[in-house]
Structure to design on (256 residues):
């Protein structure tokens, strides 16, 4: 069921999203060669707790028998890791790496979700283009995030933009509605047909998140049951914001 948030609920969404954005900022400032993804995890968790939120990803159930709940406060996915990388003291960032950080702040019963791909030090122009196109795909998509349009208009626009630039859309994972639950209806694929899907209405809060592979499409799951990597070993990028559908232009809640 797609939930339409009341004015009061929207205020709570705004606050959870603000904390998520603050946590991203804190991480961005600390990313450099030599830091571990475990240290980034602690930074994010501390910032969220200092701001009255908890990291909603910590303890998130896998839904798969034998796979423990997610142990981290953030997902930290380096280079060919697409999403759901587990923070670790053993994963030390190196000059030229790229790292996707996906985090969710839960405050006053509501969730704010955002992801960014960062460059460690400096990197090559292929990685830079991958990161830029992924971010641009989000902004292409939300041009259609307007009352009366259909969900497929967003999906179509994102997918087209990624493919036009020669990269591959991750089709096995998608964006989602968000609110009291981290994942609500509707699912929001990063490809699809314009004019299809539900009609967008003011009060919907949606996490829109292009996930892009530099090379061929196709993913694999590591033995930890969480980490998703590109099948061809090429790098991947992720860009996500929680947005609000309004009477006019969409509002991006996870950008400060
Ligand atoms: Mg996310």
């Amino acid at each position: 069921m797609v939930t339409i948030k009341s004015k009061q609920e929207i205020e709570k969404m705004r606050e959870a999203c603000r904390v998520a954005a603050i946590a991203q900022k804190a991480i961005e400032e600390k990313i450099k060669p030599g830091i571990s993804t475990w240290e980034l995890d602690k930074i994010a968790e501390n910032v969220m707790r200092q701001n009255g939120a908890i990291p909603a990803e910590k303890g998130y159930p896998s839904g798969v028998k034998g796979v423990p709940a997610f142990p981290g406060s953030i997902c930290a996915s380096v280079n060919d890791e697409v999403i759901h990388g587990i923070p670790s003291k053993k994963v030390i960032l190196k000059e030229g790496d790229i790292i996707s950080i996906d985090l969710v702040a839960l405050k006053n019963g509501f969730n704010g979700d955002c992801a960014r791909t960062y460059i460690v030090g400096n990197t090559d122009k292929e990685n830079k283009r991958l990161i830029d196109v992924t971010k641009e795909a989000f902004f292409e998509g939300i041009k259609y995030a307007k009352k009366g349009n259909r969900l497929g208009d967003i999906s179509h626009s994102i997918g087209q933009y990624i493919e036009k630039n020669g990269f591959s859309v991750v089709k096995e994972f998608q964006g989602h509605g968000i609110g009291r639950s981290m994942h609500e209806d509707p699912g929001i694929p990063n490809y699809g047909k314009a004019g299809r899907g539900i009609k967008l209405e003011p009060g919907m809060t949606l996490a829109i998140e292009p996930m892009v592979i530099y090379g061929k499409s196709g993913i694999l799951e590591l033995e930890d049951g969480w980490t998703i990597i590109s099948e061809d070993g090429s790098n991947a990028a992720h860009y996500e914001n929680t947005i609000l559908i309004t009477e006019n232009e969409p509002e991006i809640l996870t950008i400060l």
Notes: The chain is about 25% helix and 25% strand. The pocket of magnesium ion is lined by residues 102, 104, 113, 115, 207, 209, 240 (CB under 6 Å). The two ends are 29 Å apart (CA to CA). Residues 7-30 form the longest helix (24 residues).
